[in-house]
Amino acid sequence: MEKFVAPGDKVGEVRSYRPGHGVYVHNDILIASLVGTLITEKPTNGETMPLLRVSSSKYAGGAPPLPDIGSVVTAKITKVTPRAASVEILVIDGRPLRELFKGTIRQQDVRQTEIDKVEIYKCFAPSDVVRAEVISLGDRHAYFLSTAKNELGVIYAKSRAGVAMIPVNWQEMQCPVSKAREFRKVAKQ
Amino acid sequence: MDQEVFQKVHPREYLARFLNKDVRPDGRSLTKARRVNITVSSIATAVGSAMLKMGKTTAVAGVHATLVQPAPGAPDQGILDVAVELLPMASPNYKSGRSSEEAICLTEYLRSLISPHINMSKLCVEAGLLVWQLRLTVYCVDNDGNLEDAILLAGVAAMRNVLLPSVRIIGEEVDEGRDAQMVEVKTENEEGEGEAESIIAVATVERTNSLEIDTYPLPISFILFDGKVLIDPSVAEESVCDSRITFLFRPTGELRGVLKPGGKNVPENLYQSCLTMAKERIPKLQAKLEAT
Amino acid sequence: MRYGPLCRVTAAPKPKTSEAHKRSDGRTGWEELRPVFLKASFLSSAAGSAYFEAGGTKVFCAVHGPRAWASSSIDAVVHCEVRWAHFSGRREETRTAAGGERSRPSESATDEERELGASLARTLGTVTRVEMYPKSRIEVSALVLEDDGSSFAAVVTAAALAMADAGIEMADLTAAMTAAVVDGNVVVDPNAEEERRASGTVMVAYMGNVGKVTDLVQTGEMEIGQLAHAIQTGCQAATQVRGLIKACLEKQAGKVLKKRGRGA
């Protein structure tokens, strides 16, 4: 049985249910805060009560996407300095963003090993597309991102000839036309 | 990579991939303009109004009328003011607050194309005493591209929809009953001092006087992308285009102007094919406007 | 329709005392609402949008965001811009009061519009679960196309629908309603003509299911008993409108599901 709910609709009581995504508790009553279908999830191991959540009607994952700690993002490099690379976040957990969010990949967050020897300009270049993970909400201006995992790093880069390059190893990419190699922190496919 | 994600990351390549198959991301062919829908007279507080949808692009135009004293240099000429407003609701890129450069450019574009077709002496009530001041405002509420065409068509439709009441200047206030409305216009003293006098007029509730606009501009825009031309671009297409070109026609089908603001050069053969496509579309647009 | 900065309507329809509870627009009860029309998701470029019509009053509203916002507070900020179209029939009255003026080429918001924008932001900020959207700003933009009375209440209602449509988490669906004292009677959802004749008005924004008032603005004069009655009937009417907002969202959700079904 699918039940349509809207913000403000009472969906249950705290003695019989736990609140999930899109549900809040007010005066021991569970109330929906999103538009969508009410879903009851059977208690998983360790839990005694079923969970109530709202599956939003318009967005696959519920509310509009917003970067959160642990989210995997696709981002475009906009600026490279000796200490950090600045990016524009384009996609979060596979969902394209409508709005512009800025991120920073700091020197210490580029790779796992030899952190102090990282040379940012040998890892990223402006207009590269990278896969990264959100590690903190960052400062006032940008989210802090990390590429310090094998599967994270540059996923698309153009050579000086303007052609998409092919990864050679985890720190080099090659232009298929000029055969010139360029340094990047390459993501493992 | 998912389509939506690919578009976000590589907008140019995304569009190129579609165009190579002679189709556009929204399913149109390169030569297919979006459906235009115009409804008029839906705003009762305006003397003329039009709501225009061109695909998802939506503009609302309305005309507000005020009785004023004419300008000293033109005692028998009415006044037309034009404004285009790009509201934050229309696009994530529009910010609230003061008018953007884009809004100011569109306002000038609309004013320069509409003003010549309005007979200002038709707006005169009594020379030297009282004229109509019309204010045409076009609000863009949804920008899915080709605002230039949408705003101009909405503006033309609203002006063609204008109906003004009959006005008569009277000496003193009299109760004209339910069919009329009293209007009192303060006159400005030459020296700006002394006792202000006022003109008392009476306007009929029924509005029957049209501006009789028989000729007006009809726009058709194209963009150039990688050597291909696309009619009636969407906002995603506009954002990656190389240049833009707008043809302006008379309702009779004669070309009266071409606008090409910057961008890459348009080769002669592409220019000609744009012109051919545009000429085909004009009668359809004209019919839409005449039907309102 | 108004034509001059100092115009007076002498042909104002007069209330008919012979017919009890008959209102100038033909309604027969003091608490009767005008016909309402609601539509969600009608603008393509916004995260959520709404069209709301009550009688002659017509409002567009759109929500953008949450978008990145450098702010000292971790919670989301709600920002609102409310505009009355130049031809809506309202601006002129407020402008004349501020000193008659000739037209400007392009206009910025009036002081009243700014104040009402801030007021809407406070209401939405209260009902939104702002803690869910850290470091961001939710932007609401509303345009009153035609003002035939109770227009700010219409803006609040349209904004609530647009926020819900955008998938923003809220404590409840807020709806707002105006009540006015006209010729000694408390009338709900007054039209422009009734608003002009009213000795006092009160606008109440109400969360119908949670049972809380989020905004209350009273202007003019009212007896205390009338005020209490106006608030109560206003809240009841707002609860009625909440039902319509929910029905509109359900219809929209059905459309989305159908579309998805076809796509699959």
Can you give a write-up of this model?
The complex is a heterotrimer of chains A (189), B (292) and C (264). Chain A is mainly beta and 189 residues long. Helices cover 0% and strands 45% of the residues of chain A. Chain A has no helices and 16 strands. In chain A, the strands form four sheets. Chain A has a five-stranded mixed β-barrel with strand order 8-9-10-12-11. A four-stranded mixed β-sheet of chain A has the order 1-6-7-3, with no helix packed on it. A three-stranded antiparallel β-sheet of chain A has the order 2-5-4, with no helix packed on it. The two termini of chain A are 42 Å apart. The relative contact order of chain A is 0.12. The mean pLDDT of chain A is 88. With 292 residues, chain B is an alpha+beta fold. Chain B folds into three domains: 1-30 and 217-292, GHMP Kinase, N-terminal domain (Ribosomal Protein S5, domain 2, 2-Layer Sandwich); 35-168, GHMP Kinase, N-terminal domain (Ribosomal Protein S5, domain 2, 2-Layer Sandwich); 169-205, no CATH class. In chain B, 25% of the residues lie in helices and 34% in strands. In chain B, the strands form three sheets. In chain B, strands 1, 2, 3, 4, 5 and 6 form a six-stranded mixed β-sheet that branches. In chain B, strands 11-10-12-13 form a four-stranded antiparallel β-sheet. Chain B is elongated. Chain C is of the alpha+beta class. Chain C has one domain: GHMP Kinase, N-terminal domain (Ribosomal Protein S5, domain 2, 2-Layer Sandwich). Chain C has five helices and nine strands. In chain C, the strands form two sheets. In chain C, strands 1-2-3-5-4 form a five-stranded mixed β-sheet. Chain C has a four-stranded antiparallel β-sheet with strand order 7-6-8-9, with helices on both faces. In chain C, helix 2 (111-127) crosses helix 3 (151-165) and helix 3 packs parallel to helix 5.
